């Protein structure tokens, strides 16, 4: 592994290397470009899992 990290920029809706937009506008870091490209899907899946796993939250 080269030590490179990849990010998904929320401003430009594209994958960026380490040198890119400020981190506050990005998701990551990811180990590969492909992982970064799937950042929105990963976040959506994690949000669904969190929501489905915390049924008590909706009852309060």
Q: How would you sum up this structure, described in words?
A:
The protein is of the alpha+beta class and 60 residues long. It has one domain (6-53). Helices cover 42% and strands 22% of the residues. The chain is built from three helices and three strands. The protein has helices at 33-37, 39-53, 55-59, and strands at 6-9, 14-17, 26-30. The chain has a three-stranded antiparallel beta sheet. A hairpin with a 4-residue loop joins strand 1 and strand 2 (14-17). The longest helix is centred in the last third of the chain and has 15 residues, at 39-53.
Total number of beta strands: 3
Mean pLDDT rating: 90
Biggest β-sheet strands, sense, barrel: 3 strands, antiparallel
Rg from C-alpha positions?
14 Å
Helix content: 40-55%
Structure class: alpha+beta
SSE string, helix = H, strand = E? Answer: EEEHHH
Bulk shape: elongated
Q: What separation lies between the terminal Cα atoms?
A: 46 Å
Strand content: 15-25%
Number of domains: 1
């Amino acid at each position: 592994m080269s030590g490179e990290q990849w990010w998904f920029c929320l401003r430009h809706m594209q994958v960026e290397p380490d040198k890119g937009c400020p981190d506050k506008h990005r998701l990551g870091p990811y180990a590969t470009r492909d992982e970064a490209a799937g950042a929105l899907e990963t976040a959506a899946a994690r949000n669904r899992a969190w929501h489905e796993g915390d049924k008590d939250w909706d009852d309060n």
